[in-house]
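re the bet — no i am not wrong, look at it urself. input seq straight from the record:
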Amino acid sequence: MPYLQLDTSRAFSCDEKAAFSSALADCYATHMQMDRRRISVAIRELGPAGLWRIVDDRPVPANLLMCDIRRGRAAAQRDALARALLVVCEARLGLPAERVNIEFTQHTADEMYHPTLGGFGPEWHPPDD
């Protein structure tokens, strides 16, 4: 954990996806104070008619970033992360912030297993200052 999943109506090259994934992981690791090796990123290109949001009574193409994360972070920390993730989406993929929704789903640490990192991760706790 975490698992960051971008659903989008747009299409991107392999290089764009790799650069975006790395930038998204760096952003997440910095804001959430964790090891970036635990982060997985998915980019699902749903096609030009694959994802819509209703704006001013008409459908417009949309994007959704789902963030499956460990529980324990304060709402203010998640808010700061969401704002930073929007910057990455716009800078790396040209996705306007007003067309990217971000949703968080929080899990206990024992709901994600990483064989390479020794199995279940620890619960999140703020670092000691």
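see?? The radius of gyration is 15 Å. told u. also The domain at 3-119 is CATH 3.30.429.10 (Macrophage Migration Inhibitory Factor). so pay up
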